[in-house]
Every structure is written in C-alpha cells, then in structure tokens.
Amino acid sequence: MFDIEIPAPDGASSLAAIGRALGAAGIGLEGGGLWSGVAHYLVAEGARAGEVLREIGLGPVLVREVLVVDLDVDAPGALGRMMERLAGAGVVLHGQYSDHDNRKVLLVDDVVVAHRALETAGS
Questions:
Q1: Which residue of 69, 76, 90, 96 has the lowest C-beta tally within 10 Å?
Q2: Which of 116, 89, 114, 113 is nearest to 104 (CA)?
Q3: Residues 57-113 pLDDT 10s
Q4: Domains in the chain, please, with CATH?
C-alpha cells in the first residue's frame, strides 16, 4: 500500500479535484484525510495515482510505501506500546492515520525495520 501526499491549499476544492481525478482513473481511497493544507490518502496503486494527479497539474505529489498494521483499539495504551516499539527500533515516524478498516497506516523511514519491530513484539 502507498500513501500519496498532495498539497491541498484550497481545502474542499482541492479535495474535489483529487477525488474526481482518482475516481475517473478507477483508483479508490482506502483511508486518509486533510491536515494543514496537505492531503494524505492510502491507495493500492501509488505510482499510477501520482501520475494521474501530476497529469492534471496537482502536485508536487509524494508517493511512499507505508506499513498498514492492526491496532487493538479496545486495549487502552495500545498506540503507546506500538510507538514505543518503533522508537526502540530507531524507526522515524513521519505520520500516521487510520484506514477504512481501523488499521494504522504508518509513514516511516524504513518499512522493513518497522514491520520487524512490530511483528517480533506480537503486534
């Protein structure tokens, strides 16, 4: 899975353009949102999504592989424990959000190391 990061300075108007372009290309959004004028969306086809958005003049578009993991939302402190594992492994977290299945989308500097840190801890 991939996170696409797109400037969205005009809020709803920017998101409308992003949604129309990706929808017309058959690319679904599986999570994400808008924060401080920057949109982040989870997509299966990162490279294609980036191309579509650049073709209509949106950008710059940053596409990066992400780690999508389950989080026990019924266990208080689960997010803290997850983040402690990542920090302990030296992983740099650039951002996180939830997908439509209530999983955590982690934008990290090293997907392999992050996956290993969470897998070995039973996450």
A1: 76
A2: 114
A3: 988 999 999 999 998 877 899 999 999 999 999 999 999 999 999 899 999 999 999
A4: 2-65 (3.30.70.260), 67-120 (no CATH)
